[in-house]
Amino acid sequence: MKVTVIGLGPMGQAMVRIFLAAGHDVTVWNRTASRADDLVAAGAVRAQTPSEALAASELVVLSLTDYAAMDDILGRDPEAIAGRTLVNLSSDTPDVTREAARWADAHGAAFLVGGVMAPPPMLGGEDAYVYYSGPADAFTPYEKVLALLGEPRYVGEDPGAAQLLYQAQLDVFLTALSGIAHAVALVRTAGVGAAEFLPDALATLAGIADMTGLSEDGAAAFDDGIHPGRLSTATMMGATAAHILGASESAGVDTALPQAVLSHYERAIAAGHGADNWTSIFEVIKAR
């Protein structure tokens, strides 16, 4: 199959190498042309312009910083996307994604949205997967080639669906990273180095599902809105959150994160969930 990849950052380069290894003919384009040098040496074809890259393949994979980059690159010659299936694996908001899908449709292109749940070194591995959404008849013909990047998880026709799930996963990821950085900053004030602290912190992250019961019935609590009080009530967890805030203030560490966490519990308690499980904070977080 002929595949075009536009955008040759670390993710785009990894995609190109995977497609080449599977025997596909790959055309590449990047604003900084030198990023294609090693890929061309490995067998890819360098396009001189985005329009040339689009003309080379019906399947066009975009790996860019955001959707504004797509607008800048493809907006110069929008008629060139006609008859192409654009698979945009770039990050942005669901609303921006939906608007891009409408733009592509108006210019005769099928538009698939993807969210890649793996860093470049893990792309194509057994743990990699990618959310996709958009027209099913655009996804199905290319499912096998897209599966080279990771398990394809098609989540429906709404172009924003894959983007929303992708951002939700990054919500978990980035919040955890901030938590780690904050915790390290806290223990450093007591002279405890990151090398000493991190192994236990990472073990805590790995054990969250079992410690909180999320691995058993956590989904039911969120989906059904039933939060039976057990060991980890909102009141108990709120007290802990207050202690973390107090320790941070005393140590002179940034308090934005613990303040945000404490606010969830305080609002849940004020709403009458003090004796309910910690999952009751969902009731003050969810959309109204």
* Tertiary shape: elongated
Low-confidence stretches: none
Major sheet, described briefly?
A: 8 strands, mixed
Task: Give Rg in angstroms.
Answer: 23 Å
The tally of beta strands, per DSSP, is 8
Sketch the topology as an H/E string, one letter per element: EHEHEHEHEHEEHHEHHHHHH
Please list the strands of the largest sheet in the order they lie side by side: 3-2-1-4-5-6-7-8
Question: Can you give the helix content as a percent range?
Answer: 40-55%
**Helix count?**
13
Structural class assignment: alpha/beta
Quote the beta fraction.
5-15%
Mean pLDDT across the residues is 96
How far is the N terminus from the C terminus? 46 Å
SSE blueprint and pairings:
Layout lengths: L1 E5 L3 H12 L3 E5 L7 H5 L3 E2 L3 H7 L2 E4 L4 H8 L10 E4 L5 H13 L3 E7 L12 E5 L2 H4 L3 H4 L4 E4 L4 H30 L5 H19 L1 H11 L9 H18 L4 H18 L8 H4 L3
Parallel strand pairs: 1-2, 1-4, 2-3, 4-5, 5-6, 7-8
Antiparallel strand pairs: 6-7
Question: What does this 3D model show about the protein?
Answer:
The chain is an alpha/beta fold and 288 residues long. It contains 13 helices and eight strands. The chain has an eight-stranded mixed beta sheet with strand order 3-2-1-4-5-6-7-8, sandwiched between helices. The longest helix has 30 residues, at 159-188. The chain is elongated. The termini are far apart.
